[in-house]
Fold this sequence. Notes:
Blueprint: H1 54-60, E1 63-69, E2 76-84, E3 92-100, E4 110-111, E5 121-128, E6 131-136, E7 145-150, E8 165-166, E9 174-179, E10 185-193, H2 198-210, E11 224-225, E12 228-229, E13 233-244, E14 250-252, E15 257-258, H3 275-278, E16 279-281, E17 287-293, E18 306-312, E19 321-322, E20 331-336, E21 344-348, E22 360-364, E23 369-372, E24 380-385, E25 392-398, E26 401-407, E27 417-421, E28 425-431, E29 439-444, E30 451-455, E31 462-463, H4 469-473, E32 481-486, E33 492-498, E34 508-514, H5 532-537, E35 541-546, H6 555-559, H7 568-583, E36 587-597, H8 599-608, H9 611-614, E37 619-623, H10 629-635, H11 639-645, H12 655-659, E38 674-679, H13 687-699, E39 704-709, H14 719-737
Parallel strand pairs: 34-35, 34-36, 36-37, 37-38, 38-39
Antiparallel strand pairs: 1-2, 2-3, 3-4, 5-6, 6-7, 7-8, 9-10, 10-13, 11-12, 13-14, 13-15, 16-17, 17-18, 18-19, 20-21, 21-22, 22-23, 24-25, 25-26, 26-27, 28-29, 29-30, 30-31, 32-33, 33-35
Region (Disordered): 31-50
InterPro entries: 6-blade_b-propeller_TolB-like (IPR011042), AB_hydrolase_fold (IPR029058), Peptidase_S9_cat (IPR001375)
Protein name: Peptidase S9 prolyl oligopeptidase catalytic domain-containing protein
Amino acid sequence: MRKIPLILAQLAQLAKQVQLIQPVQLTQPTQLTQPPHLTQPARLVPRPDLQDGIQEDNLRLDRLSSPRFAPDGSNNAIYLRRQYHMPDCNGASTTLHWIRLNNSLESTPVQLTRPIWGIHDQQFFWVDKATILFLSNRAQSGLTQLFQLNLPDNITALTDYIEPIQITDFPLSIDNLLVNRQASRLAFSCQVYAKLSIHDTAAQQTVKKASDSLVYEFDKLFIRHWDEYMIGLRHHPFVVSIARDTKGTFQFTSTPEDVLFGIDSDSPTRPFGDGKSEWSFSASGNSFAFTRQHDETSAVAWSTNLDIYTVNLTTSNIQPVCITCENLAADTDPKYSPTDENVLVYRSQSVPGYESDQFKLKLFNGSNVRTLLDNWDRSIQAITWSNNGQSLFLELGENADHVIYKLRNVQSPDAEASIVLASGSSHDINPHPKDEETFLYTGQTLTEPINVWLHRLSMVDQPITKHNKNLLDKMQRSDAEKFMFAGAKNEKVWGWHLPPANGTGQKAPLAFLIHGGPQNSWYNTWGFGWSFQVFAAQGYAVIAINFHGSDSYGQNFTDSITGQYGTLPYEDLQLGLTAALEQYSYIDAKRAVALGASYGGFMINWIAGHPEMSQRFRALVNHDGLFDMRGMAYSTDELWFTEHDAGGFTPYDNPEAFEKFNPVNHVANWTQPMLVIQGGRDYRVPDTQSIGAFTALQRRGIPSRLLYMPNENHWTLNPLNSIVWYEKVLDWMHQWTK
Length: 738
């Protein structure tokens, strides 16, 4: 039930009308080709008449990320653009794009790398005006390797794509590129066996693949984590020296050194860690900091402890030194100052075993640690230094928005933060090399998908990308608004309301959405699953409550759900539904459907067993929901979730804590039709939870259906499966609300 990135979004009726948007500046048209090392397996083709392709339109939107200014301070930027093969969703391509940021912000982007279905450029580092290092699976082997792109003096004059130079040719894919400021060292990760090199790991893998035997043996946890079996491979960071050859191409000048060699642990951490967040080079490039988990024993399954280690790269024998081991909670995301070799900031929690504890901001000066903004009650999600080393940009959730604060004069005892971006969802800050008040970022809302934006002190923020404009101009979208009501304990609780796209002139059915986490929020962000806009496009009003336990209203509000799974949030949902029906009179209270995933799925099962709430809904939709809390406690991967949220107990020390809010104990009260959805590779909420719920429904003779997706994890990631998901969910809703 890890905090699920909220995926909300749009609609429209024109997947067959608008073609894949191409970079218009090229005289040669973009031709997305299929490289010889890629083959496409046979796939299920979803029903083409699903409401005129609403979710297809949603999925075909370009995904933009990683905006970066030119390192020389010129007014140019590069970003990544991912395009999807539509209408059949049979592939995607990610490429590098360059744009000049003139005053009118009307520049046409230049696509630098050739788009090929199945090829993804990623994690680039702009070394100097003319050189980019990046990772890509463009290698003939199909493995992800390191490439170099040499930029011409006049990029706007390009008439064809730039062919990159391949630098590495490892027998395994590499990931998580990080280059120091001097471009004298870089770090990358590779999945290796703890005591084997990259080449020896590849050889061992070849032997295993040739064997007819498939047997897993475990002596400790994890057995499974998120969506994979833990059978030996570890993400290890490798550090290597680099320099240009006589042709200007970067080459390795030392043997890559495995910083964690011999240690059965991951860095970046699984399942969602990345090198950009969890690694850092010091100002001189001579020190390297990284985050790792303590995977050596089974305690990794019930401990949230992460620690930060540093290594001196100038010594012949690298020895990681832990700088946070006194804290038994999580310490992560080290960020060295760009100007001071000894200063490092990071995020830190104080409650062991509680993943949703508040992340505080810590500053380490080489010998001492102090807490910055100690009086804050918000949890910091990401940290970015200004290039002069005087300020920090802080990303955090606040009142269902992902906002940006700026902390000036970082090392001053009186340093204070002021808000810079207050609405929408803003991420991936990239400060200008010479102007501390100017930065790039990615921004989105419930009504606008992601774009790259430019922030200047004296100007209104403007998007510098318009790749999705043609499609969006033809879409009918619903406005989103927040509403407030008195929830449990008579405290203020907030929710979202979206009217149907066809207006409020007649009574409309209701999609009542319940978020997962549970320490999460329905954020002001655009996405591609659980899309508010898709439901609104089908004529549904959308109500989504950020109940007690949600994470963007202060830490006390987040903590309030501990030991209260079935009380405070349940009361908020009851009161929120009543408030919405009173405030938005066009909603037909007799045609409501409740939908939820993960903890939201738990709440669907909980509601099903409590007639005073279940009878308010014509039907229910439960995706990867918790059904039996005791069984969940013994079969989920990360035990700290169930143990902390039950009040800090194990199921054998205090069985009652797990039975108190156990949906399985109330199956006798179930009456309402339910659609159950489950991913076969979901090891957070194992499939027996949904199978158990469906079995209970069938045994009681309640109209029900099980949608099982064998290759999906806790989320529905495959675009084709996403279309099928919406087809089945909307069909179920229409069946019971028509």
